[in-house]
User: What shape does this take?
Amino acid sequence: MKYKRILLKLSGESLMGAKQFGIDNKRINSYAEQIKKIHKSGHEVAIVIGGGNIFRGVQAEEGGMDRTHGDYMGMLATMINSMALQAALESHGVHTRLQSAIEMKEIAEPFIRRKAVRHLEKGRVVIFGAGTGNPFFTTDSAASLRAIEINADVILKGTRVDGIYSADPEKDKNATKYDNITFDEVYKLGLNVMDLTAFTLCKENDLPIVVFDMDTSGNLEKLLSGTNIGTLVSN
Assistant: This one.
């Protein structure tokens, strides 16, 4: 098994599905079914979800709110999404643990690295909520940090696009897709994969990233069974 322990990064916006806001039940159930399949096949799965379908700290700044205050609101949004995914997974019979970077003892465990690793070893899916617990850091940074802390083999970044392109494929029909690309090439070409803090963490810790289309059902399972899906970023 090439990737035994994975960290799956999902965007909050992807949970909206066909909706303009909030959580689409069909989409979150589709994600839960896909995660259940790879979990049953022996992969250890940790997950980080964004909160952009509910609230983004950047929005708050645009409206004149203090960025720090807005970022904490965004962290709470990630917890709502994390709880929704936890409920969906458990309705499919998958044992989970939700850990929060901000203490919320009634609904989640505090993030404790050794506990998280033990849960993974025992076959539980671990969801990391509330980002890093600090303002000015994105959920991409949280995903990179948690992946390194739990010694994940790879970050799988689920998006609505099937990989990394030379330009935005939704705007430029001539955009070409990369199957494999190095961290240095991404820097040089100025491609947008993750924010630079998250991306640099992965590069310095030799943690590969696979960007793929999570919205196409079955892609996650195919990717982990060795099918050439998405774009691999590595050193």
Observations:
- The radius of gyration is 17 Å.
- Residues 67-91 form the longest helix (25 residues).
